[in-house]
């Protein structure tokens, strides 16, 4: 009997699909409608143009609470199936993120399959055309930055539609959401510290940060300001060196970060990094970071619980960026966004308390809170 599903991140094959982890799985020889039903979809929209090279997918998972805000990912994919799976699980994650944050938004996301050997001219044509695609959806999907897209791309999109956020100040937008995402992660991390250690500060705590790109850098900078001792890694050596030079961080190799003896592990790079291989190496008390889909499978949440590691569920702790662009959408000011981002602390405490009371992994509790509010 062969396996029916494969994790898109770690390529592990499995027969089972469960509520939380079909985010990560893709049925081989899948029936698209069957898969969409399993994920409780929703709508899928495609646009292609061989002249510009545009191949775009917009996934709208759930519009019950309002129009969907979700970033546009622009990366190369091994196959169309991989792109489709990525956008479908990401859009579903946005439904959960908006719901746990109590924002009046549904869940949606888009991917544009990045053509190889892309020129700047082609990039411009693709993003302008993508703007027309977003416009054609009439406002039920609002796009923003994600992996591979930048503020300048949002500005191009804004020439064709108003349904875009994260544009530059010149284009009337609030720019890169990463600093606010990092601020939210900091609040969630502080909640975990309060819950685990009964402390109100991170002064002197050892924090291992995996990935010091946009969010990881801002998070590391804030934690350094607060007196934390940093251990960092990244595949980008310049990014690591900047942390060593400016934040007194200690650098370790990418595969060493899991075994670092520390209080807190903050994953800010990739998904599926808590898995069968890495979990036995962990020597931290808390996992609190920005990366999406950190657990390779739902059972890893239970294994963390058994190990006594407090896990801050990813979509709840990294919601600051969504709050930032949602504020922009609603015409609210940065004070509103700051207050809402601070509420991540309370959300996290609620999750931790309920997880302990019900003897459940924190990720399962976060899913339940969302599903109770969305599906009764
Ligand atoms: P980024 O691309 O700027 O940073 C990611 C960093 O991880 C890069 O520096 C990259 O070199 C590094 N990296 C990649 N593979 C690595 C590996 N094997 N080991 C160590 N480092 C590695 O992305 P970002 O915007 O900072 O986002 C980081 C994570 O947070 C992503 O998972 C993203 O989905 C999530 N997230 C980001 C935002 C946001 O506002 N940017 C919001 C919510 C969630």
From TrEMBL:
Keywords: NAD, Nucleotide-binding, Oxidoreductase. NAD(+) binds at residues 211-216. It comes from the Bacteria. The keyword Oxidoreductase applies. InterPro entries: Aminoacid_DH-like_N_sf, Glu/Leu/Phe/Val/Trp_DH, Glu/Leu/Phe/Val/Trp_DH_C, Glu/Leu/Phe/Val/Trp_DH_dimer, Glu/Phe/Leu/Val/Trp_DH_bac/arc, NAD(P)-bd_dom_sf. GO terms for biological process: amino acid metabolic process. The active site is at 109 (proton donor/acceptor). Residues 175-376 form the Glutamate/phenylalanine/leucine/valine/L-tryptophan dehydrogenase C-terminal domain. Belongs to the Glu/Leu/Phe/Val dehydrogenases family. This is Amino acid dehydrogenase. The lineage of its organism: Bacteria, Deltaproteobacteria, Bradymonadales, Bradymonadaceae, Persicimonas. GO terms for molecular function: nucleotide binding; oxidoreductase activity, acting on the CH-NH2 group of donors, NAD or NADP as acceptor. It holds the Pfam family ELFV_dehydrog_N. The keyword NAD applies.
């Amino acid at each position: 009997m062969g396996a029916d599903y494969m994790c898109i991140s770690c390529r592990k094959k499995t027969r089972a699909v469960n509520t939380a982890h079909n985010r990560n799985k893709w049925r081989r020889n899948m029936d698209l409608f069957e898969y969409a039903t399993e994920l409780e979809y929703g709508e899928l929209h495609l646009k292609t143009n061989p002249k510009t090279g545009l191949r775009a997918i917009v996934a709208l998972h759930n519009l019950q609470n309002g129009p969907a805000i979700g970033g546009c990912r622009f990366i190369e994919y091994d196959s169309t199936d991989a792109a489709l799976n990525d956008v479908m699980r990401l859009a579903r994650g946005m439904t959960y993120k908006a719901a746990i944050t109590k924002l009046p938004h549904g869940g949606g996301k888009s991917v544009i399959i990045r053509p190889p050997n892309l020129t700047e001219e082609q990039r411009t044509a693709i993003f302008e055309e993508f703007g027309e695609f977003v416009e054609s959806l009439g406002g039920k999907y609002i796009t923003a930055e994600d992996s591979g897209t930048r503020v300048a791309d949002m500005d191009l999109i804004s020439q064709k539609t108003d349904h875009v956020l994260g544009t530059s100040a010149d284009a009337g937008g609030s720019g890169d959401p990463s600093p606010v995402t990092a601020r939210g992660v900091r609040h969630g991390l502080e909640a975990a510290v309060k819950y685990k250690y009964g402390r109100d500060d991170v002064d002197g705590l050892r924090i291992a940060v995996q990935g010091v790109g946009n969010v990881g850098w801002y998070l590391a900078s804030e934690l350094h300001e607060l007196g934390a001792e940093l251990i960092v890694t990244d595949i980008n050596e310049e990014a690591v060196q900047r942390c060593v030079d400016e934040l007194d961080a200690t650098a370790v190799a990418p595969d060493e970060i899991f075994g670092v003896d520390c209080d807190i592990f903050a994953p800010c790079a990739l998904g599926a990094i808590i898995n069968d291989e890495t979990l036995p190496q962990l020597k931290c008390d808390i996992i609190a970071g920005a990366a999406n889909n950190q657990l390779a499978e739902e059972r890893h949440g239970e294994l963390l619980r058994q190990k006594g590691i407090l896990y801050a569920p990813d979509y709840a702790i990294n919601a600051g960026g969504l709050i930032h662009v949602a504020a922009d959408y609603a015409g609210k000011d940065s004070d509103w966004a700051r207050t809402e981002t601070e509420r991540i602390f309370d959300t996290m405490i609620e999750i931790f308390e309920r997880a302990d009371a019900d003897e459940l992994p924190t990720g399962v509790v976060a899913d339940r809170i969302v599903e109770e509010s969305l599906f009764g």
